[in-house]
Amino acid sequence: MQWRLAMSSISRRLFLSLAAGLVPASAIAHHGWGGYDTSKSFTVTGKILKSTFENPHCGIEMEVDSKHWHFVLAPPLRMQARGATRELIAPGKTCTVFGYPHTSKPDEARIEYIVLDGKRIELR
């Protein structure tokens, strides 16, 4: 009986150690920006068609030169801390974005800064 309790305790500690080790790895994996080509930066201006203000990242969709784009912005907390509120990225607003295109998703880009109502807001 003592042996079984000892093994149970070891198994539980091993499981918890492995689980604790995997949580940070999954959080780090989320922030991999390797899929964006930083050698091909671009700037575009257009009207926001759709916006999301939620974790893990805010986003906007715009139609620019007959192309529908999905732009990945910063997380909501960072957006708010830098003055980019839900209302500022509301559909119908015009903005300028500077960012990097995704290497395999031709309609997606990661945005470094956004200009809203004449104010440049750094997102990274």
Characteristics of this structure?
OB fold (Dihydrolipoamide Acetyltransferase, E2P), single chain, 5-stranded mixed beta barrel, alpha+beta, 124 residues
Helix % is 25-40%
Strand content: 35-45%
CATH-assigned homologous superfamily of the domain at 42-115: Nucleic acid-binding proteins
In one word, what is the shape?
elongated
How many helices in DSSP terms? Answer: 2
Distance between the termini: 56 Å
Write the element-wise H/E pattern from the N-terminal end onward. Answer: HEEEHEEE
List the strand order in the largest sheet: 1-2-3-5-4
User: What are the low-pLDDT stretches, counting only 5+ consecutive residues below 50?
Assistant: 23-30
CATH topology of the domain at 42-115: OB fold (Dihydrolipoamide Acetyltransferase, E2P)
Q: Major beta sheet, specifics?
A: 5 strands, mixed, barrel
CATH-defined architecture of the domain at 42-115: Beta Barrel
Average pLDDT level = 85
Q: Number of DSSP strands? A: 6
The CATH top-level class label of the domain at 42-115? Mainly Beta
Radius of gyration using CA atoms only:
21 Å
Signal peptide: 1-29
Pfam families: DUF6152 (PF19649)
Keywords: Signal
